[in-house]
Amino acid sequence: MAAARKSARRAQVERLITYPIDWIEERSGLIGGLKYFLLRKVPGDTGWFHTLGSATLTAFIVQAVTGVILAMYYKPDPDKAYESIRFITDDLTLGWLVRGMHRWGASVFIILMFFHMARVFLFGAYKYPRELNWILGVLLLVLGMLEGFTGYLLPWDQTSYWATVVGINLNGTAPFLGPFLVNLLQGGAEIGSETLTRFYALHMLVLPGAIAGLIGLHLYLVIRLGVSSPPWSPDAAGADRAEPDRPTVRKGLTQPGRRGGYAR
Amino acid sequence: MEPDRGDQRPHLPSPSLWPVGFAVGIVCILAGLIVSPPAVALGVVITVIFGFMWVREVTAEQRRPPAPVESEPAGPERTRPAPAIPANEGPAAMPESSPEEIDAFERFPRSKFLEGATLGIGAAIGGIVTVPAVGLAVLPAFVNQEKKEVDIGPLSEFPEGQWRIATFLEAPEEGEVSRRTAYVRNNGLLAGAPSFTAVSNRCVHLGCPVQPGGPSDEENKRMIKSESGAQIELTPTQPSNFGCPCHGGSYDTEGNRRAGPPVRALDRYEFAIRNGRVFLGKTYSVSEVEGQGKEARIKKYKLASPGQHVDGIESWLYPVQPPGK
Fold first, then answer.
1. DSSP track, B249-272
2. pTM value?
3. pLDDT band of B103, cuts 50, 70, 90
4. Do A238 and B8 count as a contact with CB atoms less than 8 A apart?
5. Which of A144, A172, A207, B46 could link A182 by a cystine bridge, Cβ 3.0 to 4.6 Å?
6. Could you list the residue range(s) of the whole structural domain that residue B52 is in?
7. Which residues of A touch B305 (CB under 8 A)?
8. What CATH code is carried by the domain that includes residue A175?
9. Residues of A in contact with B5 (CB under 8 A)
């Protein structure tokens, strides 16, 4: 009797938990998508090396979260920027920690990108059919470096100011477009307040948006193409996937009868 | 993907020596640009020949007449390759699948029209939004960049033959961020007109501030006001040269490069004397200065960013400077 009541209560609790999940799944299919993403099959001999990509993603998320919070206190004005950074570091509760996470996390992000890239290169995981994902990864690397370049100016101290002067003038030595690149980066003929606000906007809006979008494409290709086996795997390179040609897998845009819907 | 190969292995190009020769040619060109012009010609010849052979080899397969179609590779799970039909010609691709073909006559043009209209209106809206937005992001960096003259103090503050480190606000309304430094020397009169040497402190390697090599008399620093009330600092100094702390560029007192990575002489300011006060005008670039002081002959160019050559073959890399410089 007691056991039956207990199991009835348990069933009630389970329903309480599963009901909202089912509600979402029924209306969006997102839970199924999440399951498909998290529980998808990967080769049996993947190892710790394959976690470098997720580690890089985590580093980016840390940068995004700490960056948003720092933006609540930072003032991108030549007369106030340095003082606001000092205020964050010295006066705000936990400001030193969050700024430190962002400042050192930036290096971690870049280093992890290179480790991830080295893993992909050494495992030959950039080869057919994953070339496009390598290209996306290179774009992400460039955007990540640009994040570093634009973020370095924001503390607006002597180091960051002169490092940016040198960095912008390095860009200026590029053939043909260099002189224009200088004006574009500086927001004018000289480094000034426009440079700071411009770098701030790039650093916290343009570049992170582009990186987030490219990470989406990058992950989409990882899921679509599957994870590659390491070179020492007994599986032949390029062997068929575990579940070939499942009906849910789209065959590509050339499949007849899927497009050109005028006829029916 | 090449469907005719049939296998699942990656398709790699066959080994070839042509790219190696191509690379040697490129190296030959680059090395020749520095050491010897004839080597450039040799490099161009090597590059063109090997590049041509490389392209020939890579495209050999495409240029071969198409082989007769072989039978389908075996395999129960393989679907037939799709016939190559452009997607927008759906009705023709599936004549048997549309029994109401009569409808197509009426419906096809309208849907076509709506598709075009949607794309066209979308493109128009996108353009109307994008053009001003991108314009605002880009154009202000290039227009209205002309500099105004800056007052750096009365003529009496510049005794003949002495250097002053002049620190001033280039655009007082922008505040400290526009603070600039120039090394200014009164050269005395040249044919009855005052002559000044006004050297920018911006290193022409990568833009760090060059420092005077010699004692600066901080105790006799003068803090004066410009006519508009902006703060000016004038510090006497006795430089024997100018040096850059960043990468070791070194210049003589006329701004000529003596050592290190800079690519030209230090930039200079145009100057004017008005109502007994010294004004610094536009900055211009200098390839080389012959002579000294008021006798100096300055090879003057439009202002270029640091690191850009203004003369010689390397200046061809920067044929157009942004307007307003």
1. -EE-TT--EEESS--SEEEEEEEE
2. 0.76
3. low
4. yes
5. A172
6. 16-63
7. 169, 172-173, 178-179, 182
8. 1.20.810.10
9. none
pLDDT at B5 over 60: no
Chain A interface disruption, residue of B102, B177, B180, B202, most A CBs within 10 A: B177
Give how far Cα B144 sits from Cα of A217, B28, B148, B318, B324, Å.
41, 44, 11, 21, 7
CB contact under 8 A, A175 and B142: no
By DSSP bridging, strand B222-225 and strand B163-169 are: unpaired
Q: Tell if the CB–CB gap between A165 and B207 is shorter than 8 Å.
A: yes
Domain annotation covers residue A248: no
Residue A228's Cβ-count burial label (10 Å; 0-12, 13-18, 19+) is buried
Cβ distance A128 to B11 less than 8 Å, yes or no, reads yes
> How far is B305 from B2, CA to CA, in rounded Å?
49
Rounded-to-integer distance, Cα A252 and Cα A129, Å: 14
Residues of chain A contacting residue B79, judged by C-beta atoms under 8 Å apart: 245, 251
Interface check B281 vs A, CB under 8 A: no
**How many CB contacts within 8 angstroms connect chain A with chain B?**
135
How many domains is chain A built from? 1
* Residue in A82, A171, A173 to test binding to B, most B beta-carbons within 10 Å: A173
Q: Is the pLDDT of residue A213 over 90?
A: yes
Nearest CA in chain B to A188: B141
Instruction: State ipTM.
Output: 0.76
Q: What average pLDDT does range A98-109 have in this prediction?
A: 97
Judging contacts by C-beta atoms under 8 Å, the chain B residues touching residue A194 are 140-141
CA angle, B207 then A187 then B168, to 5°: 55
Q: Is residue B90 part of a domain?
A: no
Q: Say which CATH number the domain at B292 has.
A: 2.102.10.10
Which residue type, as a one-letter code, is found at position A30? L
Has residue B115 been placed in a domain?
no
In this structure, is residue A74 part of a structural domain? yes
Tell me how far apart the alpha carbons of residues A147 and A106 are, in angstroms, rounded to a whole number.
Answer: 9
Q: How many domains in chain B?
A: 2
Residue A180: per-residue pLDDT: 93
Q: Each residue of A16-38: pLDDT tens digit?
A: 999 999 999 999 999 999 999 98
B9 vs A contacts (CB less than 8 Å): 237-238
Question: CA B125 to CA B119: how far, in whole Å?
Answer: 10
Q: Which residue has the tokens 């402190």?
A: B201
Nearest to B10 among A127, A189, A194 (CB): A127
Rounded mean pLDDT of chain B?
A: 85
Instruction: Please write the tens of the pLDDT for every residue from B16-33.
Output: 889 999 999 999 999 998
Q: Is the peptide bond before A129 cis (omega within 30 degrees of 0)?
A: yes
**How many Cβ atoms are within 10 Å of B196's Cβ, its own excluded?**
24
**Contact at 8 Å (CB) between B17 and A247?**
no
- Model pLDDT for residues B276-305, shown as the tens digit of each residue: 999 999 999 999 999 998 899 999 999 999
Question: Do B170 and B270 fall within a single domain?
Answer: yes
